[in-house]
Amino acid sequence: MNTYEEAREWLTSFTSAGVRPGLERVTMMLEGIGNPERRLKSIHVGGTNGKGSTVTFLKKPMEEAGIVCGTFTSPYVNDFRERISVNSEPISKQDFLECTQAVKPVAESIARTPFGIPTEFEVLTVIAAHYFRSKAFPDVVIWEVGLGGRLDSTNAMHPMISVITNVGHDHQQFLGDKIEEIAYEKAGIIKSGVPLVTCEQRPEPLAVMEKEIENNRTKMYRLGHEFSVSGAEPAAEGWSFSFHSLLTGWKDLRIAMLGEHQTKNAAAALFVLRYLMMYYALPVDEAHIRSGLEKAFWPGRLELLKANETAVLLDGAHNPEGMESLAQALAAHFPEKTLSLIVGMTKEKKPQDILAPLQQFDNVKNTAAVTYDFPRAASAEEVASQSPLPNTKAYHSWQQAFDEALQQSSPDTLIVFAGSLYFISEVRGELVGDKNK
Asked: Distances from the Cα of 420 to the Cαs of 77, 126, 226, 301, 351, in angstroms?
């Protein structure tokens, strides 16, 4: 391979392996390139919802302090390369090509063993580790779990501290249907001597985490116990709140993200930062934290845009818990708006469960079920037939539904795109002008 495009094509060839949870292949690949992950100072972020927001709440204060921060996240919104970034700048095409060339012989060698072909995500994880260690040299790397935790390829990393934002119903075909089963997979990122920070507050998943904490002889810091949020109030564009913990506290903090749940994600990030400040001498001070939180932004998560003077909200609410957070945000920030909903989701989702939190609104003017350009996208007819929202109509494309919603809009209309992050990525690409690459 000699170009970025060829490197991407080679990486995409591993999609045939599908999703095959396990650490054997990624561990062997990392060993094959000299275990770069062992020489990186890392933070590991898992959970069902809020991982991306927590990552940005962590990285922005560090960037404000002049700390070089690498991130490995998924899925991407605008450009594939943003999955591997340093100080919010995606890996360059040349660096991606060179790192892929370095990993290629090892990946192809593993494919010939009884362990089989590595998955695309496993290979990409190894490419990221090689990039961070051999080219970018960030001070800290934040790894976002792709799926589950226990058998996710990012679990081959050796972090200073880990985060589990929460435990919800997603990827049940891989993680199980019961909340305890999903919690077990999420808690698999807990490692010996590595502390855990979590926003989860329900006794069932916490009991699972506590068992893993005891087995690994480490410490868990919980929202509502070792740290907390108070005085959370919606602002014009975001939320204000105060943070309290065993280590320190800050009053009147502001974030620019919508939704009260984001104050919890921010609190988890704040505790992690304070922990690293105390035990690893991370050079971040209060001014960096305040300015970083205000600048933190995660595209496609309760992102407010304008189209022909009509308000448009994008949110990748792709499971019941995410849709509940969207419902809470709509009630807090847009109580006077008339809602026009456009939803798209993947085939394995149950529309009747995911859309249930939106049944509480009597100001929904119409609901459009749509499909989008993704192999696992559900058909519009499939979503419409299972929707619990009255008068849900199937459309041939989201563009058609959007055009109709715009034509029928008034000054008090809010058009809401919700569902799969792949759907939101496609919509955002056209509305904002960033095409996936």
From this structure: 11, 26, 34, 11, 12
